[in-house]
Design brief:
This protein is an all-alpha fold. It has one domain. The protein has 9 helices and no strands. α5 packs across α9.
Length: 242
Amino acid sequence: MIAPNSAGVPAEAVVPHKRRPLAAALRTLIALAALTGIVIDLAVGSPLRVLSYFTVQSNVVVAGVLGISAWRAWRGRRPLPAWATGGTLLFIAITGLVYHFVLANDASGFSMTDGAEALSGWRSLSNQLLHTVTPIGVALDWLLLTAPGGLRWRHAGLWLLYPLAYLAFALTRGALMAPGSTARYPYPFLDVDIHGYAGVLGNAVTFGLAFSALAFLLVALDRVRPYVRGPETGFRLRPPVR
């Protein structure tokens, strides 16, 4: 009789994954937080304008990826690929960090808190969900409930294609809209009317370097963070080979 792993099949490949109700519950809550914030914004604002923001787009990614991850954890299926969960963390981390350190910071020069329309009620709730709750939730899920060691340096370059594509989208959208249109450019640092294309390019390079550093930092952290073991994790029996 041939042993199950005598043909070179790793033991973890034949051991069934266990259901992970804790991970499923947390991921469901994070996905619902993102979805709630998006729905509120769509209900109180112009859908096309709302969907043009990186904040909303990154939370759409969170709702989709965390929702699928919750279902897979509940069913005992294999986790999503590390590049998908790592990219989701990067995008929502960009959202949270840029908001708190730039857009909500009067000293940054790009603050969006001095507008005539103060955030209150549903808008305030949505703002907190999309900029604070989901970034913290995704970070906790990645740190505590996601197996380490799956990220590669090339993944950082892959992730950065999205911010680059968003830059092209925002500038193209602004160029096609009539001058003076509301939210023609979604963020102050992308406003060509104020900074000109040269200024916006300089801002884009600065933010791009920061995003690149963050992406490579995530990969580096993934390679050194501790491996979580236990029957409740559903991870492989041993850390993946790096």
